[in-house]
Structures are given as structure tokens and as C-alpha cells.
């Protein structure tokens, strides 16, 4: 009987599986070669740095290989050294330098004027004002909430103006002279006086 494992796709004895294993091994070998070559290059660079650091001669300082990281270790600024040279008299101040300094000052002033604009936020109003002679720009006209508040304040002012002070004086009612009063007067005097008295008269009760 033949081996049934040869029919399986995962069988390591198959030619296609052996080919895959061989290709993976070749890739690992190539990667190891590249890693070793890179390590050798790094070692050579380190040796060159060591040799260049050992050289102290002034003529060979400029020959030092530039790595692009010199600015990280450069603490001396050229501007300060130039200013010190002018103060000590080692260098002369010419008209061209004065013209350049004047142009630089003008450019700095113009930039400062552009940057003087500042914002003030006061609730709803956002007003941009500047230190120059420009008029202040009011942006509250575009805000619906500001319009609503302004209309509300105007309405309250009109209501206060329309309200008038009222007097709390009550009207005085005078007793009417009519048929009822004559009827009580024609009878007994005591009854008419009692009915027409201040406490029992209906006109005084109101």
C-alpha cells in the first residue's frame, strides 16, 4: 500500500513544501548578510569618528566629516561674536551696515503694527480693536441674541415711559334725594332719622 500521507497538503516530504522551506532559509541567509554588512559599516564610521576626534591640529579641524548634527553641539552664536568685535573696535561700522539696520527696524515696526490687533470678548459682543486710528468694528449686529436683547431693552423703556402714576383717592358718594327719602321723612321722625343715619344708609356702605 502507498503512503496516504503523501496525499496531504501539509506533508513535509512533498516537493512543493520542501521548496517553500528552502526559499525561507535563503531569505534568512540574505538578511543575515545585510545585517553583517551594516554592522561593518557602522564600525568603520565609529573608527573614523575616533580618529577625527584624536586629531587636534587646526589645519585638519575643517576636514572633520560632517554628520548634520553639528548644530546640536554648537553653543557659540556668530551674532554675539560679531557684536563683540564691533564693540572692541576690531571691525568698522560702515554706511551699508547702518542702512541694513534701519531697514530691519522698519520691518520690525511694520510687523509689530500688524500684530497689535487684539480681541475683547464681552458676553455676546466680539469686538476687534487696534491701537491704531482705525475705527472699532462691532460684530454684535450679526448676532441674533444681541438683537433680541436690544429689542427687549427698548420695549422695557417704552413701557416705563407709558406708565403714569395713579392716584389712590376714592370718589365721595353723596346721598340721593328721592322718593324713598321722602317716605321715611313723612313718617315718625325717629324712624326717618334711623334709616337716614350714616351707618344704615346704603350709600355710605359702599
In short:
Keywords: Coiled coil, mRNA processing, mRNA splicing, Nucleus, Spliceosome. Involved in pre-mRNA splicing. With 206 residues, the chain is mainly α.
Textual characterization of the structure:
This protein is mainly alpha-helical and 206 residues long. Among the domains are: 12-56; 112-159, no CATH class. Helices cover 55% and strands 5% of the residues. The chain has eight helices and two strands, in the order H-H-H-H-E-E-H-H-H-H. The chain has helices spanning 15-54, 70-73, 78-88, 95-114, 144-162, 179-186, 189-195, 202-205, and strands spanning 118-122, 125-129. The protein has a two-stranded antiparallel sheet. Helix 6 (179-186) runs antiparallel to helix 7 (189-195). The relative contact order is 0.03. The model is unreliable at 117-136 and 184-190 (pLDDT under 50). Belongs to the CWC25 family. It comes from Kluyveromyces lactis (strain ATCC 8585 / CBS 2359 / DSM 70799 / NBRC 1267 / NRRL Y-1140 / WM37).
Strand content: under 5%
The sequence of SSEs as H and E is HHHHEEHHHH
Q: C-alpha Rg, in Å? A: 54 Å
Helical content class? 40-55%
Number of strands: 2
Strand order of the largest sheet: 1-2
Instruction: Round the mean pLDDT to the nearest integer and report it.
Output: 68
Low-confidence stretches: 117-136, 184-190
Structural class determined from secondary elements: mainly alpha
Biggest beta-sheet profile:
2 strands, antiparallel
**Overall geometry:** flat
Amino- and carboxy-terminal Cα gap: 133 Å
Count of alpha/pi helices: 8
Region (Disordered): 165-206
Function: Involved in pre-mRNA splicing.
Family: Belongs to the CWC25 family.
Subunit structure: Associated with the spliceosome.
